[in-house]
């Protein structure tokens, strides 16, 4: 996916757990762990939720994205060499259908995140060097 280095893209492919930060219309921040799924053909990251007993449940992050589409997503871990991770700042959009295609057993409702800026640490640089940050140009999302 354009906007990510080869190393960042490979790292994201290895991961499926992230933290999604949203803020509703009132501006109160909210951070929640989510499962991510790269969609390189569409140039975005998908966030889905497991379908639990009782059907589709309301999720605060989805309500927040409807009210305020600006989101941040962090995927990170800690290795013996130190921390590494990717921060994606972008725009989210809630979809009412299609989430079950992300993974069997998922709710139909899902969130699409289009990256606008990316920062990473410990992937293309040393673990304790400053993050490698840059904007992602709109309309440049393509598979590598």
Task: Offer a few descriptive terms.
144 residues, mainly beta, 6-stranded antiparallel barrel, 7 strands
Describe the structure in your own words.
The chain has 144 residues and is mainly beta. It has helices at 6-14, 60-67; strands spanning 17-23, 29-39, 44-50, 70-79, 82-95, 106-121, 132-135. It has a six-stranded antiparallel β-barrel with strand order 1-2-3-6-5-4. The longest helix has 9 residues, at 6-14. It is globular and about 45 Å long.
Strand order, sheet with most strands? 1-2-3-6-5-4
- The biggest beta sheet, please? 6 strands, antiparallel, barrel
Uncertain segments:
139-144
Order of H and E elements: HEEEHEEEE
Helix segment tally: 2
CA-CA gap between termini: 5 Å
User: In angstroms, what is the radius of gyration?
Assistant: 15 Å
Helix coverage percent: 10-25%
What proportion strand? over 45%
Would you report the number of β strands? 7
Mean pLDDT: 89
SS class: mainly beta
* Backbone shape: globular
């Amino acid at each position: 996916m354009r906007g990510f280095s080869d190393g960042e893209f490979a790292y994201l492919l290895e991961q499926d757990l992230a933290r999604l930060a949203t803020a509703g219309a009132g501006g109160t921040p909210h951070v929640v762990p989510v499962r991510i799924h790269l969609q390189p053909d569409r140039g975005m990251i998908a966030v889905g939720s497991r379908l639990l007993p009782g059907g589709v449940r309301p999720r605060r992050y989805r309500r927040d994205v409807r009210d305020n589409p600006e989101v941040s997503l962090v995927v990170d871990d800690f290795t013996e060499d130190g921390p590494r991770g990717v921060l994606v700042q972008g725009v989210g959009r809630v979809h009412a259908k299609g989430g079950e295609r992300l993974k069997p057993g998922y709710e139909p409702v899902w969130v699409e995140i289009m990256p606008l800026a990316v920062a990473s640490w410990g992937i293309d640089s040393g673990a304790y060097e400053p993050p490698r940050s840059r904007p992602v140009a709109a309309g440049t999302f393509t598979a590598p």
